[in-house]
Amino acid sequence: MSESHFNRIYLTCPIIYRGRHDDLKKSLMSFGFCCGEGWFILINELSQQVEAIAVDMKNRGCLENELPIVVQVKEKFGGLRFYMRHQNDEISSLIEEAEAKSYRICERCGLLGKLMKDDGWYRTECVSCRAKLKE
Q: In what order do the strands lie in the sheet containing 33-34?
């Protein structure tokens, strides 16, 4: 995903991405979002939903070191993986939902896609992006 998209999400969700500059033992977000542009909208929406929960928790007196924090966002086996610390059941449910949706969204362009296997690699792609990859 592009740096401009990284920054857009970081600016709108400062609480949950506050650890993006932490050392690698705490967070892998210094690598950014390790997935294609096509999932930007999905990740942005999920991030904003989780940020709203974090803001509410903060307003209710939750300590900063207990607030939800994203530690890695990536593609694995053709689907989105969104890893966090300090998540509650509501956040876990939102993540599960987004990860399931990722299998129907082309990771490259964001159009309707499906999970495909090619030479042992799994990708969620639309027909058009798959054809381009084969060229």
A: 33-34, 69-76, 79-85
